[in-house]
């Protein structure tokens, strides 16, 4: 794979559309290639390459379909190239006009024709109206099964290709990834270097090659249907201090990311990993960063922030969903549910310890323990993130999946694919805890669908008691027994006809219990006939 | 006990000080009885008794000690009596001057001399600087062991005397109680009745006798050292609709409560019980109610709101501590801890199901289950509330402790006294979860004090592993085994000298484990020598 800009932006047709402009002012020559709703439209302009264009040049374009106007920021891509990227939220004709403090870039006009999306383009992921789940903009549910490869994007092309191959066809549909690497990476720098020391770099000059390379990784995820949860700051590189700049520099960096990346429909913004370990920023700084993302991103991508110990107040209006680290929150569904109830937003437990074999306790889950956490999260109506931390001996000298991507060595992945299939076969956009705040451990949709997960318990039978809400008696259900580790679905013969059992439960008096295998990792699914 | 106003306000000296004024304007005749810091000082004035004084008369007094000015609202107490109540936050001379739109009440002056508090007066309860616990204003820790008797204050004097007797010497130091009764009560009405129908009452005219009676109950709790967690609205009386008035009426009611009650130092404000079941108020109404309490109460009493299903956003600035209902939050300490971490405020689980024997699931905990919930809350650095719901057959025809107070029939109370003693013997102002977000189940203070509770597990031995933070090796601890049900403390002989065990733990290599009884409800306490 090549990292020249051209390569990144000429494939495939239908996802990208570009309009290139020669120098003569006011002469517009739209290339008018195929552009889809939620695709990426790019305006290319030639402008000054002297001075410091990152500081000196203001550039934006107003796009309108006649009903709304979207102001889209532009950015400098080096060598006198300026670009403005827009992802049309609706089909139809979007006329645009540029604004700039540079004459050559100001007052350019053109139009983009956004057609209906192709089959694999469902639009960006949004929070659903119920407030707790996700769906693509076209309404297709987004059943989050996340994973993390912090610095995969900064590895060699070969390693990145391997990562993409690993992800292709896997259950993972969201990947957490850092803009600034946290582990050893290819020798390319996000800022222009002014010397050979760690701190010898110019925070006012981005290195376009670095960001072209980074966005090509985002694009390669888009091509395989994986959301890119982009981690903007992190505490793991105090030596170089990319996350320790002042507010003026941070704002410029955020605006650069917005201008370059927000038009990719698979972009999510994660303000930080372990934000509370970044000693150079205050809570007011984080509020400001997230508020800026909210107000300045014309594409309104999802926004969250990930903690180590101090939970962010996810009730704040610029947070679209919670991104939580907690080693024990998904040891049962009840604790997981708590976060949902306090924030009333979707909750993703993006870090719940990792499958692996390192000595540190956060990186040595068995596959069973990893999968159990996902199931507890699902029953609670929340979502979970995976990663792997197998030691270099097992994963090769390049380090773990968590740090660099590559290949996976764990056993959780196929079981998470099984869980994802269960999710997809269940109600849209997701399930909710039923009779929460009681010892039920049941998620679903009242009257329609129930899922009970037994984790590391190994019951030999189970009373098929359904919580009363949504039931009147007479409803018929079929029951499946799921082995979540061996990935089997075994239907229980016949139907269950519900009748009131007591103050809180309905059941079938003719068959109040079912037999189970006595194995661990079992679940029961109860579906209205 | 008499409910005339005089009876309520003449005893005991030292808690009350009153200044009574005859009619002639500008002639002040302060009685200047003994007044303590945090005691109650009352100005009595004669004014109009025609028209509707509740609507027509504005009255307040500015109190100043020269350093600060406190504006204190007055209220109408019927029969031409107007009162202004002030609890001095500091010792010294507090000069005051009244303001009113009625000439007879305006421009009165006087002064109050606040002496140092007596031994049993520790001041009002405040949130401690660490943000998670409570202490009286003089710094004495307040170890909350709550209970609830919703409508005890509206029962007969005899029943109330019985309630006070039950509470005296009990572990309970906070009582949740409603202004408006939720169960059968004495035939006295908070508003002036205009007919015999349920809705025949005048929301613009309070019944002073009702509120005098109510405040005498608050006062009787103060006399025995119990905080009064006053529930302002509730959803249990749709028939009469006291909680369903409009905002103008609600504001007047809130101001009346503030003026009458806030000078009692044991008052806490609970905006509602099960606020989300009151269908006539929106979230904006609740915000407004709590913000009004925050801005208008000159004594800044604690403020919370109690839910049924929808948690209030306790991050809001007018909330001093969370008041949570959840049937399962304290089934383990980890879930309980979650609430603390998200709100970063003290958390009281005011409703966790009750000890009792009714058929409804929220009212049939065993004593063991009730006590277990308190211990889990304590390990998590949170607080819990008790009540009893034994059926009338057992508790007499007058109903349960939960509804009406009286006597208790349960077995939890002495065990809660034992827990309270453990709390009092522990660090001030309280303990915090240690190595939270891991499966530790340990609360305490790092390096100083550790408490591990086993609940309904029944281990025969336990590895004395202390989480690493706060330890370097060489520290010595003594260990006590607590039987939380049989209320015994058994010291383990000798000391434990800590050394590093692994990445996360310290222990004594010479004695890494201790034997336990194999019984349920055990705990281990580890105290630095």
From TrEMBL, chains A, B:
<dbReference type="InterPro" id="IPR025277">
    <property type="entry name" value="Apiosidase-like_cat_dom"/>
</dbReference>
<feature type="signal peptide">
    <location>
        <begin position="1"/>
        <end position="22"/>
    </location>
</feature>
<keyword id="KW-0732">Signal</keyword>
<dbReference type="InterPro" id="IPR017853">
    <property type="entry name" value="GH"/>
</dbReference>
<feature type="domain" description="DUF5605">
    <location>
        <begin position="438"/>
        <end position="527"/>
    </location>
</feature>
<dbReference type="Pfam" id="PF16586">
    <property type="entry name" value="DUF5060"/>
</dbReference>
<feature type="domain" description="DUF5060">
    <location>
        <begin position="35"/>
        <end position="101"/>
    </location>
</feature>
<feature type="domain" description="Apiosidase-like catalytic">
    <location>
        <begin position="131"/>
        <end position="386"/>
    </location>
</feature>
<dbReference type="InterPro" id="IPR032260">
    <property type="entry name" value="DUF5060"/>
</dbReference>
<protein>
    <submittedName>
        <fullName>DUF5060 domain-containing protein</fullName>
    </submittedName>
</protein>
<dbReference type="InterPro" id="IPR041239">
    <property type="entry name" value="DUF5605"/>
</dbReference>
<dbReference type="Pfam" id="PF18310">
    <property type="entry name" value="DUF5605"/>
</dbReference>
<dbReference type="Pfam" id="PF13204">
    <property type="entry name" value="Apiosidase"/>
</dbReference>
<dbReference type="InterPro" id="IPR013783">
    <property type="entry name" value="Ig-like_fold"/>
</dbReference>
């Amino acid at each position: 794979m090549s990292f020249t800009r051209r390569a990144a932006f000429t494939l495939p047709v239908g996802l990208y559309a570009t309009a290139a402009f020669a120098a003569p002012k006011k002469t517009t020559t739209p290339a008018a290639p195929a552009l889809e709703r939620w695709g990426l439209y790019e305006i290319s302009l030639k402008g000054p390459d002297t001075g410091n264009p990152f500081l000196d040049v203001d550039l934006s374009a107003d796009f309108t379909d006649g009903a709304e106007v979207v102001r889209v920021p532009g950015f400098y891509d080096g060598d006198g190239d300026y670009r403005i990227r827009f992802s049309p939220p609706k089909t139809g004709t979007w006329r645009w006009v540029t604004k700039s403090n540079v004459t050559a870039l100001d007052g350019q006009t053109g139009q983009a024709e956004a057609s209906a999306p192709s089959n694999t383009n469902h639009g960006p992921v949004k929070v659903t109206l119920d407030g707790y789940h996700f769906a693509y903009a076209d309404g297709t549910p987004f059943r989050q099964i996340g994973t993390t490869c912090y610095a995969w994007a900064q590895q060699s092309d070969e390693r990145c290709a391997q990562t993409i191959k690993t992800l292709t066809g896997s259950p993972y549909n969201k990947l957490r990834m850092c803009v600034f690497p946290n582990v050893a990476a290819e020798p390319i720098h996000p800022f222009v270097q002014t010397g050979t020391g760690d701190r010898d770099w110019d925070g006012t000059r981005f290195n376009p090659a670095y960001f072209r390379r980074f966005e090509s990784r985002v694009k390669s995820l888009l091509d395989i249907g994986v959301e890119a949860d982009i981690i903007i700051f992190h505490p793991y590189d105090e030596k170089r201090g990319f996350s320790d700049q002042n507010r003026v520099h941070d704002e410029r960096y955020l605006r650069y990311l917005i201008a370059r990346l927000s038009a990719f429909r698979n972009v999510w913004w994660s303000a930080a990993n372990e934000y509370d370990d970044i000693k150079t920023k205050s809570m007011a700084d984080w509020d400001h960063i997230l508020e800026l993302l909210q107000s300045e991103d014309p594409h309104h991508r999802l926004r969250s922030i990930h903690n180590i110990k101090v939970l962010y107040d996810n009730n704040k209006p610029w947070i679209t969903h919670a991104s939580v680290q907690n080693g024990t929150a998904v040891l049962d569904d009840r604790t997981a549910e708590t976060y949902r109830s306090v924030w009333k937003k979707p909750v993703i437990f993006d870090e719940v310890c990792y499958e692996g074999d390192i000595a540190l306790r956060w990186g040595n889950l068995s596959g069973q323990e990893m999968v159990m956490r996902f199931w507890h999260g699902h029953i609670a109506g929340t979502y979970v993130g995976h990663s792997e931390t197998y030691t270099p001996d097992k994963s090769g000298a390049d380090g773990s999946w968590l740090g660099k991507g590559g290949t996976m060595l764990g056993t959780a992945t196929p079981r998470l694919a099984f869980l994802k299939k269960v999710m997809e076969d269940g109600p849209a956009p997701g399930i909710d805890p039923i009779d929460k705040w009681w010892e039920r451990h049941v998620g679903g949709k009242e009257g329609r669908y129930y899922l009970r997960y037994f984790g590391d318990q190994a019951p030999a039978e189970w009373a098929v008691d359904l919580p009363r809400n949504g039931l009147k008696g007479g409803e018929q259900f079929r029951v499946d027994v799921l082995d979540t580790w061996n990935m089997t679905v075994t239907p229980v013969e016949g139907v269950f006809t519900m009748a009131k059992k007591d103050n809180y439960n309905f059941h079938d008096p003719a068959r109040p219990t079912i037999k189970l295998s006595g194995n661990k990792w079992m679940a029961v699914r109860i579906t209205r006939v």
